[in-house]
Design brief:
Elements lengths: L1 H13 L4 H33 L4 H27 L4 H13 L1 H8 L7 H11 L1 H18 L2 H32 L4 H22 L18 H8 L1 H4 L4 H16 L5 H8 L4 H51 L6 H28 L5 H30 L1 H22 L12
Helix pairs in contact: 1-2, 2-8, 2-9, 2-13, 3-6, 3-7, 3-16, 4-7, 4-9, 5-6, 5-9, 7-16, 8-14, 12-16, 12-17, 14-15, 14-17, 16-17
Amino acid sequence: MVVRVLKTTLGPMIRPQTREDRNIRRLLLHTALFGVVQGGIITFLPVLLARMGASATAVSMLTSLPALLTIAFAIPSGSIVARWTHPGLMSARCFYILRLSYPLIAAAALLDPRIAPWAIVAIWGLTAIPGALGNTAFYDVLAESVPATRRAAINGVRWALLFLISGGSVSLFGQLLDRVEWPANYLILIGISFVLGMASIYIYSRLEIPPRPVRPTIRERGDWRTRLGNLLIPFRARSGFGAFSIVTLAMRIGFFLPAGLFSLFLVNTLRVSDAWIGGRTTIESIAMTAGYFFWGRMANRAGKRRMLALLGLAVGLNYVFVSMATTERLYLMYFGALLSGFFVSAGDVSLFEWLLEIMPEDDRPRYVAMNTLLMNLVAFFAPIAGAAIAEAAGIRTVYWLSAISMVTCTVLALALIRPAHHPPRTVG
C-alpha cells in the first residue's frame, strides 16, 4: 500500500504537468523542510528551558502565552484574512515574520539564566500574532491548492513526510546536543531551524492559487448583542460545528493539560539525556509516519467517528503508560510513543477533513477564527491548570486526568457523530 501511495504521489511531484501537480510538489517540499524545524527548535525549546532550570509555570507559559495572544487575535484575524485576495502570499509574509523570532531566541538564550527563560517565553509568545493570521489563511490555501478528491490522501502523505523528517531530525539534533558543548549546541540547532524554515516558506509562497473574489466589507452596526450574535453564527448555522467543538474540547484538554510538563518529567523525574529524548521522539515519529500513510488512505472508509474514538483510547492509554514510567521502566515510554504516534495521525486527518466539511466555502475565515479561538482558550488555561495540579499533586496525577479527558473524547465522538452513511447530527 505504501509503495502505491508513494508512486501516485511522487510521480506528479517529479514530473508535474498541471497546476495541481506543481502545488502538490511544493507542498511536499515545504513540508519536508518544515520537518527539520519541527524536529529542531519546536521540539527542543521546552527542553532548553528545562535545562536552564525553568519552573513548571515558565515552561507551561511557552504554550499558554502564545495561546493568550492568539485568543486576542483569533476573531480579528478572521476578518482580516477574509479581505485578502491572495491568501497564499499574504500568509507567507506572516510566516516569514514568525521565523525571524528564531535568531532573537538564540540571543536571549545567552542572557543571565534568571532572565533567559522568561525572555524566550516572551519572544515565543509574540510569534502568535503573525501565526494567527497565517494559520487562519492556511485552510483557504490548502483547499484551493489541492482538490477535495485528493486532499485526504495528499494530507496523509504530507503529514507522514513531516514526521518522517522531523523524527530523523530529532534523533540527529539529540546527538548534536549531547556531543557539542553549550551554548554552541543549541545555537547550531536554532540556526539550522531558521535557515531551513525560511526556505520552506519561500517554497510555500510559490503555490499557484488563483485570486479569490472578496466580498465587500460591511461595517457591523448595532449593540453588543448583535455583534455577539454574528460571532456565534458558526454555532447557529446547523452545520455540525457545535458537535465538532464539543468533541475537540475534550480532546484538547487531554492534549494541553500536560503540555508544559513533559520536558520537566523527562529531565527532572526520569533524568534522561537529550539523545534519549531524540530517540524516543524518533520512534513516535516513525509511528506517526506509518499512521499518516495508513489513515490518509483509510479516512473515507473508516470515517471520522471511528478514527476519533480510536484516537481518544490510544492517547489515553499512552498517558497511563507515562504516569507509570520510572527510570527502571522506561520501556513504557516507548510503548506509549508507538501507540500515540500511530493514532494521533488518525485524529489529524479526520479533524482536518471534518472542519473543511462543515465550513461554507464563502465563510471559511469566520469558522477557522472561531475554531482557533476555542482551541487557544484551552491552550491557555489547560497548561496553567496542569502546572498548578502538578505543584499540588504531582505530574503523574496530571497524566491520569489527561487520560480521563481523552476517554471522554472517545465517548463524545461515538455519541455526537453519526456513522458515515447517516447525515451528521447537529449540535448548536
